[in-house]
User: Fold Translation initiation factor 1A from Halococcus saccharolyticus DSM 5350.
Amino acid sequence: MSDNQGRKDLRMPDDDEVFAVVTEMLGANRVNVRCMDGTERTARIPGRMQKRVWIREDDVVLVSPWDWQDEKADIEWRYDKQDADQLRREGHIQG
Assistant:
């Protein structure tokens, strides 16, 4: 494992999930995200994450867009800074 030391196996999106970057905090457990499929969405921070995972602007998250309303999504996962840098290096997310 010499050529990619420090590389972790990160949680990758399932079929219905996309990478996103938090662009704005809206309050009331909602954030604006810019998804890697080119769509801006309003994402909801689920109750299981509210007190345990702090989400800030410019965080890389994994969201699952709603089936019935494409401009909304639920946040499924937040990557820490090192993991986000690795995703950028490997070309999974832009910016």
Q: What stands out?
A: Residues 18-89 form a domain with the OB fold (Dihydrolipoamide Acetyltransferase, E2P) fold (CATH 2.40.50.140).
